[in-house]
């Protein structure tokens, strides 16, 4: 489980350095993060932190399994929760449950 506080340092991404070892061993990786304060719905990734995170996904061939908004307000929709893996083919189902 991972949480990124608002306005935290970009150094927090250094936590992903451990992924290099997992990648080298071809081990399965599943990382779940709640409220990472990066909107992964944005295609232009105008936030530098979000751009850095997406670059890490690309480097280690990680797939974000959640593709729909995880936070919905009357004025916005954002995808700020993570469910990433390096073996998406082994995932049987993933998604978002909305409470109304």
Could you say which structural class the secondary elements and strand pairing correspond to?
alpha+beta
Kindly state the number of beta strands.
5
**What do the pLDDT scores average to?**
82
- Which word captures the global form? globular
Order of helices and strands: HEHEEEE
Query: Radius of gyration in whole Å, from Cα?
Result: 14 Å
What does this structure look like?
The protein has 100 residues and is an alpha+beta fold. It has one domain. It is 21% helix and 14% strand. The chain is built from two helices and five strands. It has helices at residues 17-25, 48-59, and strands at 30-33, 63-64, 71-72, 77-78, 82-85. The strands form two sheets. It has a three-stranded antiparallel beta sheet, with no helix packed on it. Strand 3 (71-72) and strand 4 form a beta hairpin. The two termini are 25 Å apart.
Question: Any descriptors?
Answer:
100 residues; alpha+beta; 3-stranded antiparallel β-sheet; two-stranded antiparallel sheet; 5 strands
Summarize this structure briefly.
Helices cover 21% and strands 14% of the residues.
Topology:
Blueprint: H1 17-25, E1 30-33, H2 48-59, E2 63-64, E3 71-72, E4 77-78, E5 82-85
């Amino acid at each position: 489980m991972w949480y990124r506080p608002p306005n935290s340092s970009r150094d927090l991404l250094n936590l992903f350095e451990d992924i290099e070892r997992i990648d080298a061993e071809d081990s399965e990786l599943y990382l779940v993060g709640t409220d990472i304060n990066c909107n992964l719905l944005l295609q232009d990734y105008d936030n530098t932190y979000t751009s850095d995170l997406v670059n890490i996904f690309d480097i280690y061939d990680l797939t974000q399994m959640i593709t729909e908004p995880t936070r919905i307000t009357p004025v916005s929709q954002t995808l700020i929760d993570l469910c990433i893996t390096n073996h998406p083919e082994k995932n049987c189902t993933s998604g978002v449950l909305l409470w109304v």
